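Researcher: We plan to redesign the surface later, but first we want a full-length starting point. Tokens attached.
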């Protein structure tokens, strides 16, 4: 079973994304911000990370840069799922290593498609 880490300070977003993924056979780990996410990366296999950009304690782009420093997770694909649609933020995300950028509000199918593409890659 493939495991996906969802990082978002919104409980409702984590629930929607989590339900969609679990319904499609993925295992889901949830974190409420970048710091929480890093604390949960304890060496287990994570196939994909879906993260918000704007969060308290540690934002998604800072978290992404930290993850890329961890040998076990350096190549783990990351999807940014955010209300942030500006080109500048997208560029920043891409430079930090984000593989996809999904803007909220999103359709669960749209997110699932991005997930399936990246997990197969």
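Model: Full-length starting sequence:
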């Amino acid at each position: 079973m493939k495991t996906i880490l969802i990082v978002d300070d919104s409980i409702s977003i984590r629930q929607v994304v989590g339900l969609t993924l679990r319904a499609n056979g993925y295992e889901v780990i949830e974190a409420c911000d970048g710091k929480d996410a890093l604390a949960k990366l304890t060496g287990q296999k994570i196939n994909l990370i879906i993260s918000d950009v704007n969060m308290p304690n540690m934002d998604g782009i800072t978290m992404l840069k930290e993850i890329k420093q961890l040998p076990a997770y350096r190549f783990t694909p990351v999807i940014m799922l955010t209300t942030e649609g500006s080109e500048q933020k997208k560029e920043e995300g891409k430079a930090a290593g984000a593989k996809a950028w999904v803007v909220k509000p999103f359709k669960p199918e749209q997110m699932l498609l991005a997930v399936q593409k990246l997990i197969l890659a």
